[in-house]
Design brief:
Elements: H1 2-6, E1 9-21, E2 24-33, E3 47-51, H2 53-56, E4 66-74, E5 77-83, H3 86-95, E6 101-104, H4 110-128, E7 132-135, E8 152-156, E9 159-169, E10 172-177, E11 211-215, H5 217-220, E12 226-230, E13 244-245, E14 248-252, H6 270-286
Parallel strand pairs: 9-11
Antiparallel strand pairs: 1-2, 1-6, 2-5, 3-4, 3-6, 4-5, 7-8, 8-9, 9-10, 11-12, 13-14
The protein binds a DNA duplex (20 and 20 nucleotides) through helix 4.
DNA sequence: GACTCATCGTTCACTGGAAT
DNA sequence: ATTCCAGTGAACGATGAGTC
């Protein structure tokens, strides 16, 4: 059962039909073969990611070429649409070939699995760079006073770095996804946040961590790739700071871009990131 | 004590309002 | 008209809070 839950279905693309508009393709319909190892059924509305045949054969890292959505189910095949947001559709479609595969997560385990793999990869990376690493507990046990608002604590000597681990934006992997759930005022177990004010936005607050670590897996296919940025506003530090949410000046914008390879304010190097924290603290304490 | 209901934090995939 | 992007709901398990 565990293997079945973890193994994605791969449906080979047998036919792609593109309808052209004035400025390139408008839409694309596909027919894909349902392989014999599929033991559940598909339903119109099921979505997945198209990956290259080379990836399935082990020659390329994971990369989402385009999204696919099943619209009709027949005996041994499914019919559906290939889609992306308009800005990326044309280029993405030109990369898809017959024989590529529509990959479907049959029981929806991907999100939590990805999160766990990223955490494990970050843990080993940080250890490799010589940090003491602690994965922080979930913020659930208020009665034992262990609430934290970051994911990892890195230590070198007496110096502590609080790290919040995040992912790329699934629908646009050129951008980070700095977001958390809003805590509502009153009632909830986290409503009395001691000296902290209650978050009233889904954007992350600068002061809750020292570093953001964004997993680049969704873009590079390598689980050990991260981009790091100081959790500091760009009016505090022009090169290393991140943009503020206009209406919430204590919070960081949710979708700052990250170039490939990462450049300021991002860095792919954890040691460089920790040096920036040191430098920023020195600068901040001097003023 | 048994029970019901609400909440957190993570992902993906989307909406809707604002800005350009 | 188009682009940008903050905000939302689904699932999960652990937990707090309230009711009977």
């Amino acid at each position: 059962m565990l293997v079945r839950v973890l193994t994605p279905y791969r449906l080979k693309l047998l036919k792609i039909e593109v309808t052209d508009g004035r400025r390139g393709p408008r839409a694309a319909i596909f027919i894909a073969e349902v392989p014999s190892d599929v033991w559940t059924t598909f339903e119109p509305g099921t979505t997945g990611k198209v990956v290259s045949r080379a990836h399935v054969e082990g020659a390329e890292p994971f990369r989402e070429l385009i999204k696919g959505r099943i619209l009709r189910c027949g005996p041994g095949f499914v019919e559906g649409e290939l889609y992306f947001d308009r800005a990326r559709f044309s280029v993405a479609l030109s990369e898809v070939r017959l024989g590529d595969f529509l990959e479907i997560d049959p029981f929806g385990v991907t999100s939590k699995m990805e999160s766990a793999l990223c955490e494990a990869a970050f843990f080993t990376e940080a250890q490799r760079f010589g940090f003491g690493v602690t994965r922080m507990p979930e913020n659930v046990a208020k009665h034992v006073g262990t609430q934290n608002y970051h994911d990892f604590r890195l230590e070198r000597g007496q110096i502590v770095y609080r790290v919040e681990l995040k992912s790329l934006w699934g629908t646009d992997t050129t951008k980070a996804r700095l977001i958390h759930t809003v805590s509502r005022s009153g009632g909830g177990k986290n409503s009395a946040r001691d000296d902290r004010q209650i978050w009233n936005t889904s954007s992350c607050r600068f002061q809750d961590q020292d570093l953001f670590a964004v997993s680049l897996w969704l873009r590079t296919g390598r689980i050990t790739d991260f981009a790091y940025a100081l959790s500091v506003a760009n009016d505090q530090h022009a090169e290393w700071g991140l943009p503020k949410v206009p209406r919430h000046p204590d919070h960081v914008t949710q979708n700052p871009p990250i170039s490939q390879p990462p450049t300021d304010p991002w860095t792919p190097d954890l040691l460089e990131a920790s040096r920036r924290v040191d430098a920023w603290r020195k600068l901040r304490d001097a003023t």
